[in-house]
Automatic annotation (TrEMBL):
Keywords: Electron transport, Heme, Iron, Metal-binding, Oxidoreductase, Peroxidase, Transport. PANTHER family: CYTOCHROME C PEROXIDASE-RELATED. Its main location: other. GO terms for cellular component: cell envelope. It is found in: Cell envelope. Its EC number is 1.11.1.5. It comes from Paraburkholderia ribeironis. Residues 40-153, 183-454 form the Cytochrome c domain. This is Cytochrome C peroxidase (Cpp-like). It comes from the Bacteria. One of its GO terms (molecular function) is cytochrome-c peroxidase activity.
Length: 456
């Protein structure tokens, strides 16, 4: 019996080898056939695309994969489905393939995920490699991939003024400033704190995003007009300009779009229209003169949210960690530095990437366990996450990765506001996102590092 199983497994292994060898580029044959522009970064992208194709990264991580015939054999079909389901939960490669094809900047989270698995050799998994012999990176493959990642970070993401040794870090220091129109900033500051944007003149933007409280309200979920309880935890407004999208589900593509949501949301500020808001603001001669001096066409929802967004661009909070990345070796303690190394070693920096240590990707909550089944509260619509916006089942339970800047000030944590203690939040993330129970000393060091992200 054992002999038969070994023969069968050997046959499957040969089929797997032949299947992948014969299906090189079957992720999308047009990728191999299209001509590539001759800009230097695009040529390198073409080489990386071919490498990832040849090593079958698309097999488990692409939504366009057409599996070879042997994947339908008994035993192999279950393994193939498991590989693809697990791969798509962790990392979907299609957007990266588009970047490599078009010569556009790859996402920072994609670069970080590639860097981690290229460095630790965990991809493809051993069982996959035992069947698909032609996969796995050679030393030269790995070096080429890591060099390309470094070149992309240097070209697109390194902060001006970062210390040279940290220019290839998955996280970067904040920029010193972002260009703004000072007149709009002044006007936007007033409007951000103006409760007349709400129906009953009781709620302003600052009510849920208090600048004295880390840019949040400290509540599990926010309160709106008439004491209505919102469905989700308010994210911080600090450094939000650096997010790729706004709200936990990413339904707003920028600060201005985000600023336009709460005033007209019936359970937040509950105004019925921008005209209702404008009628009240028009009764303030001083504000109206100031507004028309900046926006000659006067009040409108577009102009009001434009001013608020311009103010929010200034809400950058440089920290001791930024000073460290800019070259100040005394900025962090030994424990904080150890925490930062643990932060990278435990894959935290594959999602909490970039200048904002988050806000760059949508990640599934519960990669290593069912967070929602273990939670002691029932599911709600907001737990669907990104799926509510994309209507794509692959986005179920995916949320925009929150920034970790000022995290010590912004409890409670997670989209549901269910965690009040930072150490507990760290343990939950390690359990459900990494599949690891950390020691008390490691959690303590990680929390020390996170405290170094509190800014001014």
């Amino acid at each position: 019996m054992i002999r038969k199983l070994l023969i069968a497994f050997g046959s499957l292994a040969v089929l797997g080898y032949l299947g992948l060898s014969g299906y090189a580029y079957f992720h999308d044959t047009s990728y191999a056939e299209r001509s590539i522009p001759q800009a230097s970064n695009v040529v390198e992208g073409g080489q990386i695309r071919r490498l990832l194709d040849e090593k079958a990264c698309y097999y488990c991580h692409s939504r366009q994969t057409v599996l070879p015939a042997y994947a339908r054999l008994p035993g192999m079909s279950q393994l193939s489905r498991y590989d693809v389901e697990r791969g798509l939960k962790n990392f979907q490669i299609d957007a990266l393939f588009d970047n490599l094809r078009d010569g556009t900047p790859p996402a920072e989270a994609d670069l970080a995920k590639l860097e981690f698995v290229a460095s630790d050799g965990s991809m493809p998994p051993r069982l996959f490699r035992s069947v698909h012999w032609s996969t796995g990176l050679s030393d030269s493959d790995r070096r080429m991939l890591l060099d390309w990642i470094a070149s992309q970070r240097k070209a697109y993401y390194a902060t001006p003024g970062v210390a040279p040794e940290f220019s290839n870090e998955p996280v970067q220091p904040l920029p010193k400033s972002i260009p703004v129109d000072a007149r709009k900033v002044s006007l936007g500051r007033e409007l951000f704190h103006d409760p007349r944007l709400s129906a009953d003149n009781t709620i302003s933007c600052a009510s849920c995003h208090a600048l004295s409280k880390g840019g949040v309200d400290g509540r599990k979920t926010s309160l709106g007009v008439g004491g209505q309880v919102g469905p989700i935890n308010a994210p911080t407004v600090f450094n939000a300009v650096l997010n790729r999208a706004q709200f936990w589900d990413g339904r707003a593509d920028g600060l201005q779009a985000q600023a336009g949501g709460p005033p007209l949301n019936p359970i937040e500020m509950a105004s019925t229209s921008w005209q209702q808001i404008i009628d009240k603001l028009n009764q303030d001669p001083s504000l109206t003169r100031q507004f028309e001096g900046v926006y000659p066409d006067g009040y409108s929802g577009k102009n009001i949210t434009n001013a608020i967004a311009e103010f929010e661009k200034t809400l950058l909070t440089p920290s001791r960690f930024d000073a460290y990345l800019r070259g100040d070796k005394t900025a962090l303690s030994a424990e904080e530095l150890h925490g930062y190394q643990l932060f990278k070693a435990n894959r935290c920096a594959t999602c909490h990437v970039g200048k904002n240590l988050g806000g760059q990707s949508f990640e599934r909550l519960g990669l290593h366990g069912d967070y929602f089944a273990d939670r002691d509260t029932p599911m709600t619509t907001v737990d669907n996450g990104r799926e509510n916006v994309s209507h794509d089942a692959q986005d179920f339970h995916r949320f925009k990765t929150p920034t970790l800047r000022n995290i010590a000030l912004t409890a409670p944590y997670l989209h549901d506001g269910s965690v009040t203690d930072l150490s507990q939040a760290v343990r939950i993330m390690l359990k459900y996102q990494v599949g690891k129970d950390a020691s008390d000393d490691d959690v303590k060091a990680l929390v020390a590092f996170l405290n170094s992200l509190t800014g001014k």
